[in-house]
From TrEMBL:
<feature type="region of interest" description="Disordered">
    <location>
        <begin position="115"/>
        <end position="139"/>
    </location>
</feature>
<dbReference type="InterPro" id="IPR055247">
    <property type="entry name" value="InsJ-like_HTH"/>
</dbReference>
<dbReference type="Pfam" id="PF13518">
    <property type="entry name" value="HTH_28"/>
</dbReference>
<dbReference type="InterPro" id="IPR009057">
    <property type="entry name" value="Homeodomain-like_sf"/>
</dbReference>
<dbReference type="InterPro" id="IPR036388">
    <property type="entry name" value="WH-like_DNA-bd_sf"/>
</dbReference>
<feature type="domain" description="Insertion element IS150 protein InsJ-like helix-turn-helix">
    <location>
        <begin position="10"/>
        <end position="55"/>
    </location>
</feature>
<protein>
    <recommendedName>
        <fullName>Insertion element IS150 protein InsJ-like helix-turn-helix domain-containing protein</fullName>
    </recommendedName>
</protein>
Length: 139
């Protein structure tokens, strides 16, 4: 996006038009702006007197932010081995805002949460045999 014209140039164009000596097209040509741009400046000046450029906000606001992001952090703390799909399922059951996997993935990235995909043998991790071998390795 190109840089905005300075507030000084905007004011000079409006002031020149207020004097009544020139038409809008002549002022636009004199200041090197389009007629539509000058009309926008004139409408803004008449509406609220402020000719400063508007701030541009990039993209949409995140759905999972603030309190919702804290709720995701709590879900991850309760069940750290949950997959993204499982987190979505639990979140959607408790909240009104439907959340997809990509949204949940971005929320996990914001939280810098480490998560792993469950392996095919994930169900075996809860068996006594595996728990004993893990305990033996820890000692």
């Amino acid at each position: 996006m190109p840089a905005a014209y300075s507030t000084d140039l905007r004011m000079k164009a409006v002031e020149a038009y207020k004097k009544g000596k020139y038409h809008q097209a002549e002022i636009a040509e004199q200041f090197g702006i389009s007629i539509a741009t000058f009309n926008r400046y004139w409408r803004a000046y008449n509406a609220h007197g402020d000719l400063s450029p508007k701030k541009y906000h990039h993209g949409r606001h995140a759905v999972l932010s603030g309190n919702n992001l804290n709720d995701v952090a709590k879900l991850i703390a309760k069940k750290p081995d949950a997959t993204i799909a499982e987190l979505c399922e639990v979140y959607n059951q408790t909240h009104e805002i439907p959340v997809g996997r990509s949204m949940m993935h971005r929320a996990c990235q914001k939280l810098k949460a480490n998560y792993k995909k469950k392996s095919k043998r994930a169900s075996q991790q809860q068996t006594d045999r595996v728990k004993k071998s893990v305990m033996n390795l820890a000692e």
